[in-house]
Amino acid sequence: MKIALLSGSPIGTKTRVAIDRLQQALVEQDENHEITLLDLRDLNIQQPDGRNYLDTEGDTLHLTTTLMEADIIFIGFPVFQAAIPGALKNVFDLLPVNAFRNKIAGLIVTAGSSKHYLIPELQLKPILGYMKAHVMQTYVFIEESDFSNKQIVNDDVHFRITTLAQDTLRMARVYNQILQEEDDQYDF
């Protein structure tokens, strides 16, 4: 399966630490997946201007085509000012409305306070639903106190990341099997 890991902020390190741990958990599940890491800190992304994503170039084209071709998309993002980062919203604005049709999406959220646990529910899940993603019901929420020296120090967070990887891979396999059974009904 093609898996895209999106670290959705051009600043900070905690989200990337969590995404790296997720990548490790995915590889432990099955080394044969094609995993692509997309970190907004490392990419020069154009501002959305309404053009088709295929008409972009450079990092923007790489980002959008990787997301469009993925079977599974994991999105990690920090909560800033009780909202998703603007840079992450720009990524969604670069894509067509149906960009995530037949894709499974999993979320990892980093925040400075437990007060922000509903941001994924109220802001990101509606966007992903509008773009036709099948969003995993549960997500991993990681607080500032779960990190120390740029590492996750809470064993429960490690467990939840591993569980998110397992559950999302399982859901994608089942969903792909259903799609294949539907395709097999046609003889052309």
From TrEMBL:
Q: What are the residue boundaries of the NADPH-dependent FMN reductase-like domain, all occurrences included? A: 1-143
Molecular-function GO terms, alphabetical: oxidoreductase activity
Fetch the InterPro entries from UniProt.
Flavoprotein-like_sf, FMN_Rdtase-like_dom, NAD(P)H-dep_FMN_reductase
Matching entries from Gene3D superfamilies are given as: 3.40.50.360
Q: Which is one Pfam family of this protein?
A: FMN_red
Per UniProt, the keywords (alphabetical) are: Flavoprotein, FMN, Oxidoreductase
Classify the source by domain of life. Bacteria
Q: How does it assemble?
A: Homotetramer.
Q: What is this protein called?
A: FMN-dependent NADPH-azoreductase
Task: Provide the species name.
Answer: Staphylococcus lloydii
